[in-house]
Amino acid sequence: SLAMFLIPLQSFFSLPRFFTVRLASDLESIEFMSPVTELTSIEAAPAEGINVIGIIFCVWLAGFAAMLLYSVIGYIRVGCTLRKKCRPVNDKEVRETFGYICYVLGIKRSIRLCRRSGITSPVLFGIIHPTVIIPDSDFSEEELTMIFTHELTHYRHCDLYIKLASVLCRSIHWFNPVSHIICRAVIDACEACCDETVLYMLKLKDCKDYGRLLLSVIDGKKHSMSLYSTSMASSKKYIKKRLIKIAGFKEATNVLK
């Protein structure tokens, strides 16, 4: 869906023609004017009307610039908010667990690991310098494994770049309500795909524990971080759908046995 909005496909190929319209030409009805008559008619021609296409383009450009500026300011604001109280994780066991998950997922790039107070959900943020930020809470080793697997799976799936493309799509098609719906659907699809990948990697008995972890990191505050970062938390409305899919995944796995 994003590709269809971002790439002008009609510029690469022409749509099939189902019918052809021919205009009748009557050469006898054409009157040829002398150069003097033609010049006089051009000078006497009335001025052109309002350039509607130019006005529409200016309106679109203004909306695009405003929407893009709004998105950039939102990204900077989220980054400043998340990094304000961050501090590096010095716990050796936590860092070893993080490094092990990076190794299992085949991630060779150096990703920062930080703690932050004031948040309830782990977050992956940063296009240039990706950082995994975990709440300043005491998590068990099993919970840390699920948290790191979730956030690093987002990184492996390039979900931050996919969300960036959806923001660009929303800015270009700011006038189209469908682009805003697609932007929200991209966020939900990224979380659903990440949940499925994590459940494939974890043991079957961890499905209930994974669901409980999702419930424990629900953030009741309304914020717009989901467009600029990946968070394990979801809204209360969408968390129910995620839990139903997790239960369905367990049933499907049992059938395959």
Task: Enumerate the strands of the largest sheet in spatial order, edge to edge or round the barrel.
Answer: 1-2-4-3-5
Shape: globular
Largest sheet: 5 strands, mixed
Which regions contain 5 or more consecutive residues with pLDDT less than 50? 17-21, 26-30, 36-42
Task: Tell me the Rg in angstroms.
Answer: 28 Å
% residues in beta strands? 5-15%
Describe this structure in words.
By secondary structure, this protein is of the alpha+beta class. 57% of the residues lie in helices and 7% in strands. It has helices at 2-6, 35-43, 52-83, 92-104, 141-156, 159-172, 177-201, 206-216, 236-256; strands at residues 86-88, 112-116, 123-125, 131-135, 229-231. A five-stranded mixed sheet has the order 1-2-4-3-5. Strand 3 and strand 4 form a beta hairpin. Helix 3 (52-83) runs antiparallel to helix 6 (159-172), helix 7 (177-201) packs across helix 9 and helix 8 (206-216) packs antiparallel against helix 9 (236-256). It is globular, with a radius of gyration of 28 Å. The chain starts with a helix and ends with a helix. The relative contact order is 0.11. Residues 17-21, 26-30 and 36-42 have low confidence and may be disordered.
